[in-house]
Amino acid sequence: MKKLTFSVVVALSGLYGTAEAQVGINTALPAASLDITAKNTTGNSPTVDGVLIPRVDRQRAQSMIGVPASTLLYVNSVATGTQLGTAVNIDSIGYYYFDGLVWVKLYNPTNATYALGNIYTTSGTLNSNRVVNQATFPLTFTNSLVNGFSVGGSTFSVDALNSRVGIGTAAPHAQLHLGSTLANRKIVLYETGDNDNEFYGFGVNSGIMRYQADRTTTDHVFYAGLTGGAGSNELMRIKGTGNVGIGTSAPENRFQVVSATAVSNRYTLFDAPSAGNQFVITALRNTSPIATGNYALLGFTNAGPTSGGAAWGMGSIRTGALGLASEEEFMLGNSLGGGYLERIRVTSAGRVGIGTSTPSASAILDVASTSSGLLMPRMNSGQMNAIATPAAGLQVYNTDENCTFLFNGTNWRSLCARTFQQSSGGAVQVAIGSSSDLTQTISLAGTQNVTVQVSFNPQTFTNGVDANAVGTYQILIDGLVVGGNLRYSTQNAGNFLYRYSSVGNWTTTLAPGSHTIIFRVNATGGNVNTNAEDRRMIITVN
Questions:
Q1: Sign of the alpha-carbon torsion through 306, 311, 315, 318
Q2: pTM
Q3: pLDDT digits over 212-223, tens only?
């Protein structure tokens, strides 16, 4: 007890107190709750001044429980214990204070003899999870470096110098740059399964930009927003089955376009570029194995049948399996609910068949039917003659003449042979010095050939010795004589036989219009009148 009492007395010899509950060591005027003043504040005294803090190893500090915040100690060894729990920061010898949760290292940067203790001055390793509660305060990193902030090297990189972010690359070349790796899942917006197929997003395969949806029941839809945020208009939809619709959200076929508003009476228009190729605008191709009978058709339907394809189809049909261009022919057909019924065929040689798929090699147009005919353009004579610059070979049906006409390069010619016939109806006496006429008027729609054939029936009669009759006959067209022949008599034993030439023919070409044709008999001499027995005139127009 004497020894203890002495120690306390000695220890308290420099201890002073005040009414304010302040304690001073080596000072009678403490300025704080505890004010320790060095015994020798100056000079070169070898006496030790200072405060000797409790010294423990890491294991001892780690084992303490119920440590008040602000407790100070000196760790003199890290060979014991682990850098876990409250000792997570105790990685070297030094002073530590307890912040209420863990021991925190004290460090004087001007006299450092061991590792720095924060991320601003040294690198380190986390030994457990850390949480930063920012509350209402932002966390900002400021720098001007290409790789100014990174996680895992190239896992996440911020290029603060060029305002770029890289994921999977430490050298981003765009505002957002994903690393140059091939994967189905490069960007996942939403997933229904943790695999390379059941997600909404994007990927990159070799030579493929991959746009992914999770199911075949999922639609791919493109929208455009309305002004003012009133909603969005659907522009195009791709069904999970592959059907594509523009103007419809329920395409029934591989590609369906629906337009509710016409522009210049057109609902859908395909234009080739103004400076592009002048040939194909839209091409349809059947990629089935080459076989005779393959179709590549464009179909047209208003309401249409419920089966058998479009109501009308036109396009290519293959006539062979060698893959030759000459095996491709054009066809036009329609469906009445089953297969296509071919109506028109155009061969690779340009021959056209209507009602036949094999037009004759000798015809450019072959029309086949057992129940219908070919109906020519119908018009009257005035309309026919008004056709400007008709081509040689042009044909029309003339309703005035009830006949088909052909333009031969110079004139319209009737293809119908019309016949006009006149007869005297018996013997006609023609007095010497007078005439007798048979007259026929014809009307021509075009320039045509006209043939006039005249004839007499021979007559024998007795009129005394030396009786004779002399005369001529003539063909007149529109008052002009175009043909004639002189007749004479012969004497035979008192019976005189007067014979006229039995047949005479004249052919000429007449212009369109009305024409008068006359068969005339003239009695020019003799001692008896001419007996013109049963004259006939036949006129043929062709």
A1: positive
A2: 0.52
A3: 999 999 999 999
